[in-house]
């Protein structure tokens, strides 16, 4: 049983979006993400694993749904995966997702990235040195 915490509802929303589906050697929907915007809207997404690097992560899908709805500021985001025995895991975003979230809105550097029911860190802590460098003298 997962302990209660301030992020448990968002984790459960992401878990409810899990929908694994196999096509040949590719797996779709086995990672799901849920995010809440600064306006309080919630968006979901799942990963799509395709050949030649054309797929995308669950966080990308959730952010794309948010942008489609005309919102850009992610307040909190979580991604989850369930193993073959049914255990649920909260996954930190990959580096590509971290940078993707940051670039959608300048305020997203302060996004709370959920790492467990009771734990989150700001995106800036997962993406240090994100500022464009000053020119050399």
Précis, in short:
The protein has 137 residues and is α+β, with helices and mostly antiparallel strands.
Question: How many domains make up the coordinates?
Answer: 1
The CATH topology label is Cytidine Deaminase, domain 2
> What is the CATH C level class, in words?
Alpha Beta
Label the overall shape.
globular
Strand coverage percent: 25-35%
- H/E element order: HEEEHEEHEEH
CATH superfamily: Cytidine Deaminase, domain 2
What gyration radius follows from the Cα positions, in whole Å?
15 Å
Low-confidence stretches: none
Q: Provide mean pLDDT, rounded.
A: 94
CATH architecture, please? Answer: 3-Layer(aba) Sandwich
Counted by DSSP, the helix tally is 4
Q: Give the termini separation.
A: 57 Å
The overall strand count is 7
- What helical percentage do the residues reach? 25-40%
Biggest sheet architecture: 7 strands, mixed
Structural class: alpha+beta
């Amino acid at each position: 049983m997962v302990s209660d915490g301030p992020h448990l509802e968002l984790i459960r929303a992401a878990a409810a979006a899990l929908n694994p589906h196999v096509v040949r050697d590719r797996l779709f929907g086995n990672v799901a993400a849920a995010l809440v915007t600064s306006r309080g809207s919630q968006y979901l997404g799942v990963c799509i694993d395709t050949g030649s690097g054309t797929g995308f992560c669950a966080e990308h899908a959730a952010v794309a749904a948010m942008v489609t709805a005309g919102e850009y500021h992610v307040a909190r985001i979580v991604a989850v995966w369930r193993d073959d025995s049914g255990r649920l895991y909260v996954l930190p975003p990959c580096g590509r997702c971290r940078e993707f979230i940051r670039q959608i809105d300048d305020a997203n550097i302060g996004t709370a990235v959920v790492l467990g029911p009771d734990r989150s860190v700001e995106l800036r802590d997962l993406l240090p040195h994100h500022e464009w460098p000053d020119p050399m003298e």
